[in-house]
Amino acid sequence: MSTEEERGVHVRVTKPIVSFLPETETSKTIAYDLQHSDLLPVYDYVSWEYLMAGVAVENSYCTRLLLRFPADPARFSGLVVAEPSHLWGGTTIWRLINRWLMRNGHAWLEIDSQAPAALDQIKNVDPERYKDMHFIPCQTLNEFSSSIPSFDNAEELWDNYRIFKERWWAATRQSPEILVAASHALRSGQLGIKAERVILTGLSQTADLIRKFILESLHLRLPDGCAPFEGFMPCQCDAGNPLPDLHDAKIIEVLGEFELIYIKALYGGKKEPSHRRADSKSFRLYEVAGMSHRETRYLSMADKKRLLAVDLEGAQWSTFANSFIYHALFDAMDKWITTDVAPPRGTTIDMDESGEIERDQYGNALAGVRTVHTDVSTAKIIDVTPQPHPHWHTGTEVPFKDVKLWAVYKTVANYRRQAGEAIERQIKAGFLLPEDAEVLRRDTIEQVSF
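== Genomic scaffold, ProqFM164S02 ==
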């Protein structure tokens, strides 16, 4: 419950106007990231598109919302997972949680709140369909793209990155109020369903946006004065200062090995990265051993074509199940919100005095969230693909040869017993759902032979 002083500084966003945007033979929805959209009919889900208009930062805007929810509204659970579209267009959390989301009757919303990306990746692709989209005038994404810093320039990375982010946030000033307005649209029934709870999430660049919202935009409120989100989940970004405790929402922050390596390059190596903080009644931090920035276990056809052309010189794309970790953590967040049952305690990856990740004899990270991939290893996991590969943010692994598997496990039966025990530990710890455990047993453990 907010105090009188806090209510005095709250700002209520303007109620938006929402209109359904139907498809026709000549006008179709622009879905930049089509990954797993083929599963919608399998789970009896539909995808609807809307335009949302209103006032943010004292200027008008109109943007696009993309909603996926059960075709039978009676199946809707009341939970909506909302994420802004990425700087490069499309979304990333949908890729990771769509199976969990649809099998539980939840809904998902893409909010095109970042002006440069929305204009270049949506409006400019079909200017007629999206003719009403507009924001405060700003540079386009194409104009920004030449100044987006890369990992190559290690010595200048931080300065370039800071300058880029300052310019980018200046071009997306309306985004926080648009995100809150979208929550109102969900709760008021303007999108065909009535949300009871909304989690705001993002991964990579959009997680930066979520962190920025938490640190700078908590004064924004729904038109009725209530907080706009019950939960925040910033996932796998470059972190920064510790996130605060909140009175009226929960926070789960997630990072993988890739992000810890990137953070070291960005901020300089030290024993304790600055984002780390203790658990509380409203906060958890999870650092996942073995998890790279982008999952390659489940790929779209476009990704498969693109990645198959890369010569990994004896390695293979990682089979680490990022999505199964996310299924468990989003499930835990929903239970935290609805029943106040706290999720597992936060856990971090071990680092030495120079900020390097500490590793076991096989080269895999110690501590952090544990999985069968790291506790009963069959490969050395490499979370940053060596340059000059164009997909350096995508993890690879070097499988153990049969002689090494024999040296470690002696028999296939012994390996499978140990792997089964690791899966049970992960379920008990709260980082794996039973449904996904069965997939791991069938598609991973039972496929190992030597």
